[in-house]
């Protein structure tokens, strides 16, 4: 290779697995690209020898290319030799090597008991702080509801209807389908086990208690948490990124009353209705599977359901619905207000809100189960 401007030449030869690059002429920025290319090829092939005896001029850019190639060869465990160095070239290469950025190596400090206690304490403090923030948003919601009752003209009824449609009506197909399939699975698995004892008829009780008391409202809340908490966080977070919330405050618009109240109230209204739809779909699916697999007719299924299933099984599930709705709505709105000024923050908070809402719903359901077991309901 000969450069017409600087008359630089790179002669490449290979001898016994070693690639020898003989550089001749003046090497400056004009020939940096072919120099880097040839050095990279040589390093990729194996051992390298760079001969600088015939170099008339070596500037910083060419020295940088040689040092980078030497560093790559050392990383790959290959031999890299520079020959024919004069004093000027040797000084320049030494200075460039010292100027190359070096990775900072941090030695992991072993954690002692104090460090572990400090780490655990910080996590507990952060969790307590997060719970207090959620309680603050709950208080804010209650305050705005009371204010809306005292001043009905300030309530945003149109926003409430819109969010009821988004939260409730559009969720009906997925909730109904999910509950129907859960009823089918319960009936099939229950019949398989109960058939061993000749107690197939008790599959009706199994389906009724499982769907009405636990699975209907719990799985509905999980689905709503997945689709609604993320939607709340994304909507409010996007407004925060575009500084729309700051503009609302500048115009004197109450952010909590305009954004939080319609969303959380829509959940409070629609989640019990979705829970009822889930219960009906689960019972229909269980009854259909019982008819197909066990021969229990719809009339017999209905009779046993009414006779052996107390109303408290339904009430236990419905009592949980408002608490699940509050948790999902507050978590979603809180996460939306924590979004920063970039899209990465929006994605992180959206994922975090879904995980937190689902986790909180399951924990709350477990607490209710223990409570109702203790009071004998």
Structural description of this entry:
The protein has 377 residues and is α/β, with parallel strands linked by helices. The chain has helices at 32-45, 60-75, 87-99, 113-150, 157-167, 172-194, 203-241, 244-250, 255-294, 298-308, 311-337, 343-375; strands at 9-15, 18-27, 47-58, 80-83. α4 (113-150) crosses α11, α7 runs antiparallel to α9 (255-294) and α9 crosses α11 (311-337). The N and C termini lie far apart (90 Å).
Averaged pLDDT, please? Answer: 86
What spatial order of strands do you see in the largest sheet?
A: 1-2-3-4
Largest sheet: 4 strands, mixed
What is the overall number of helices? 12
Strand content: 5-15%
Summarize this structure as a short list of keywords or feature phrases:
elongated, 4 strands, 377 residues, alpha/beta, single chain, 2 domains, Transcription Regulator spoIIAA, 12 helices
Report a brief summary of the structure.
This protein has twelve helices and four strands; from the N terminus they run E-E-H-E-H-E-H-H-H-H-H-H-H-H-H-H. With about 375 residues, the chain is α/β, with parallel strands linked by helices.
Please outline the helices and strands.
Elements: E1 9-15, E2 18-27, H1 32-45, E3 47-58, H2 60-75, E4 80-83, H3 87-99, H4 113-150, H5 157-167, H6 172-194, H7 203-241, H8 244-250, H9 255-294, H10 298-308, H11 311-337, H12 343-375
Parallel strand pairs: 2-3, 3-4
Antiparallel strand pairs: 1-2
Helix pairs in contact: 1-2, 2-3, 4-9, 4-11, 5-9, 6-7, 6-9, 7-9, 7-11, 7-12, 9-11, 11-12
